[in-house]
Amino acid sequence: MDKHFLTSLFSPGSIAVFAGQPDDPESQTPQARVLHQAITAQHYTGKLVFLDVHASGTLADLANTHADLAIIALPAEQVTAALEIAGRIKCQSALVISSGINAAQAADLHKQATRDGIYLLGPNCLGFQRPHIHLNASVAGELASVGPLALVSQSGALTSSILDWAKKNAVGFSTVVSLGPNTAVDMAQVLDFLAGDAKTHSIVVYLEGITNARRFMSALRAAANAKPVVVLKAGRKQAGNRAALTHSGAIVGSDDVFDAALRRAGAVRVRSFVALFSAAKCLASRYKPVGKRLAIVTNGGGPGVLAADWVSEIALDLGRLTPEQVQQLKPQLPPLATLSDLIDVSEDAGPEQYRAAIAAASQAPQIDGILVIYSPKTGIDGDAIATAIAGFNRQASKPLLACWMGDASVGEARRILSDAVIPSFRTPEAAVGAFGNIASFYQNQQLLQQTPPPLSDLALPDVEGARLLIESVLAERRKVLTEMESKALLAAFHIPVTKTILARNPNEAMMIAAQLGFPVALKIDSPDISHKSDVQGVALNVMNAVGVRDTFLDMMQNVARLQPAARINGITIQNMSNQKRGREVCVGMVTDQPFGPVIAFGAGGTMIELINDRSMELPPLNLFLARRLIDRARVAETLGPWRGAPAADVDALEQILLRVSEMVCELPQLREMDINPIIVDESGALAVDARIVIDNAAPSVRHYNHLAILPYPSQYEQVCPMAGGGEYIVRPVHPDDADMLQAFVRGLSPESRYFRFVSSMQELPATMLSRFTLIDYDREMALVAIHTETGLDEDGRPTETSRIVGVSRYITNPDRSTCEFSLVVADDFKGQGLGSRLMLSIMDFAREKGLTEIEGLVLANNHNMLKLMKSLGFAIKSFAEDPDFKLVTHLLQSS
User: Fold this and answer.
1) Among 143, 144, 109, 139, which residue's Cα sits nearest to residue 127?
2) Which of 5, 334, 348, 747 sits at 20 to 30 Å (Cα–Cα) from 258?
3) What is the pLDDT of residues 344-364, one digit of tens each?
4) 761-783, pLDDT tens digit by residue?
5) Portions of the chain given CATH number 3.40.50.261
6) Sheet of 202-207: strands edge to edge?
7) Which residues contact 516 (CB under 8 A, 6 or more apart)?
8) Which class would CATH give 714-891?
9) What is the pTM of this model?
C-alpha cells in the first residue's frame, strides 16, 4: 500500500498497446505509426502485448491477458472500445494518444475510466517517457537520455522542442510527461507522483493554466518540499480588471498572484525557456540553503561590472570581503589585483591565484555564493584555471558558478567544469540570474515552511458581528460597503480606524465637525462611487464650521454634476490624522481566479495606481509572512528613519496585515478590499479610508474552502487525561515539530520502529522528516501527542521539557473517499490509553472530512496493534498481496 497510485501508469510491469495493425501501416493513425516505432525502438524492461479492437476473440481469451497500462492510439471513434477492453483486462491505468477529441467526448472517456477504476492520461496528449525503464510511450520524439530531471508540460509542441534541445545539450530525464488540455490525470497528480519518485531529483514544469487551485497548491507544495521545482508559465501579461471597484482590484493582475502562489509553494519561477534548465541544473546541486550575497571573482573589470550590475538589477546583494579578509588574501594575488567590491584578481592571475580568491570567498561567512568569471588572456591557461576550480569544488560548501567568456578557445574549459558538476554559463548576466534562482528557491522554501492558523494570537475579533454586518448589506442587495460600514468591519477585527460620522445636511456636518475638533476631512458617501477623488468627493484640512458648510454644499453640487446617477447617503466627517511625518501605505485584498483571496501591500494615497507598488501573499499570514510581504514592497524603504522622521512602527503594520488575514479567512464573502491610506509613523498605524466589496459565498460544508492554502487547524487541539495521572495535548503536527519527531523516532525500540516503518532505520531521513511535518491538512492529517515534564535545571530553577509520545496520521487515497492510517506510541507510554485516543481522534477528523472508510496494514506478528484495532471495531482480514500483513478496515460513515 506504500506504492503511489500512478505507479501502474509511469512504472508499469506490463503494457497492452492498442495502435491498429502494425503489419498494415495504412490502417493506423499517424500517432499510432509514430508510437509503434517509438515503443519498439528500445528494449522496454516489462512485458509488451499488442491488441486489436477488431480481432475476433472471446472473453476467455481476454481473461488470460493482463496489463498494468493500456496505451491507446486509435481513431477517436475506436477509443471507447479500446478503453472498454482495458477495463476487462484489469488495466489500472490508460494512456490515450490522440487528437481531435472534443471536451464532451473526453468527459465521457473520463467517466468510463472512473467506472472501471482506471487512471486516464489523455486524451489529446503526446504521452510520456521513462528513460530508465526504456519506455517511450509518446509521440514526442526519440527517447530522452537517462537523467535526474523530470519534465511536466501542458504544451505538446514545447515538449517536443525541449526534448530536441536536451539531446544536443546532454540533458537527461527521469520522466517526461506531456499533458493535453483534456486529461483526467492532471498536473497535480503527476507532481504528487514525482515528489516521491526516487529517480527524480528535480522537476521542471511548463504551465499554461490550472483549474483547481487547492489541489495544485497542495501537490506543488509537497513536491517542492521534497525536491527543487522550477516553473515556466505562459501568459505573463497584466490581467488587471478594468471594472474593478477598488484600487487593488485594478492593479493586481493574475500573473502577480501566480508569482505569489509559487513563492508560497516553495517553487521557483523563471521567465524564459533557457533559464528553465539553467535553474534546474543549479538547484539540483548539492549545495545547502543560501542567502542572496554573491561574490564575483574575475580577471577582467568589464565582465565583473556587468555581473555586479545584474546583481543589483535582480535584487541580489554583492558579496564583499571584509578588510581583514582582504589583508589576508592580497599577498597571494598579483600586484594589480583589486578587492574593494569585486574580487578582481587581475589579468595576470593563474590557477593558484584563482584558487586563493575562491577559498577566501568560500570561508567568508558574509558571502553566500561565488561566481568565477574568466576572460581569455594571452599567456594564461584557461583550461588549467578550470581544472583548479574543478578540484576545489569538492571542498566548496557554497554554490560555485562559472562564466568562461568567449567561444573557440574555452570549449575544453567548459567541458572540465561540466564534468565537475559546476554550472557554467556563457554570459555574466546568465550566471548571476542562475544564482538568483538558487537564492529565490531557498527564500521560497522558508515561505513554504509557514503554516499559520486562521486566527492570530492577537485579541479575538468579533467575527459574528462582522458576519451580521455583511448579511445585512447583502440583504439590501448591495455589494459595496459604505465607508462607515467598511470601517465598522475593520473595527470588528481591531484594526485602528479614524472616527467617522455621517452628516446628511450642512448643519449636521458643522455640529459633527465641532464635536470632533478641527481640522476635519469630508468625504462623499455613496455606494456607486468607487474612487471619491475622481468626482471631487474628498476635502482635507477643513479648519472651521463655515468651511465645513461651504465644502459640504460644493461637494454635493460637484458630485451631482460629475456623476448624476449616483446615490448619495451624505458626507462623512472625520478628524484629520495628526501624524505629521506619517507614510501613506495601502493594504488591499483581491479575489483571483483560481487562487481565491490574495492580500496585497504597497504604497498608498491618491497616486496608488500610477506608482503601482504592490507585493502579494496568499492567506493565511503569520508574523514571518507579514514581514516578508512588507519587505518586498518598494515603500518599505521609507519605513525606516527617513528625511528626519523617526522609523515607522512596522509592528503596527504587521498587526494590520494579520488582522486582514483573519478577515479573509473568516469571511468568505469578501471580494475586494482597499484600506487606503493607512498612515503609519513612530506612534502606530491608522486606517484613514476603506472600501470593501462583498458577494454571496458559495455554500460549503468545509470551513476555509475558499482558500488555496488550508490554514493550520488550531481548533483541533485538545487536552487529554492520562490513565495513570497527568495529561497530554493532542494537536495537528506542525513544521516546527521536526526535531521533536526525530527525537521520538530515535527513542523508539527497534521493534516499535520496525512495526511502524517495516525497516531497521534508526532515524527518519531528512526528506521523510520534512514530508511528515509539512503536510497538506486538506488531504491528510497527522496528530501528535505532546507530554510536558517539569524538572529543575543546574541552578535549581523549574524547567519544562516537551516531547512527542505518539503519532497517528491518515492520507486520503486517490479515490478521495477512503484513507490509509498509521499509528505509533512511545514505548514508555504504551498501555495508558494513548493509542486509542490518537486513533479515535484521527478517525473523527477523517469522518469530518467526509471520508467513508479508513484502512491500514499491520504486520501479522504485531499482536498489540491488532488487539487495539479489534477493540476499536476494525475488521481484520488477510492481505492477499503479502501474507506477512493483515488489512484492517473500519467504516467511518455509510456511503
Assistant:
1) 139
2) 5
3) 999 989 999 999 999 999 999
4) 899 988 788 889 988 888 899 99
5) 286-422
6) 135-138, 127-130, 173-178, 146-153, 202-207, 229-233, 268-270
7) 499, 501, 573, 574, 575
8) alpha beta
9) 0.85
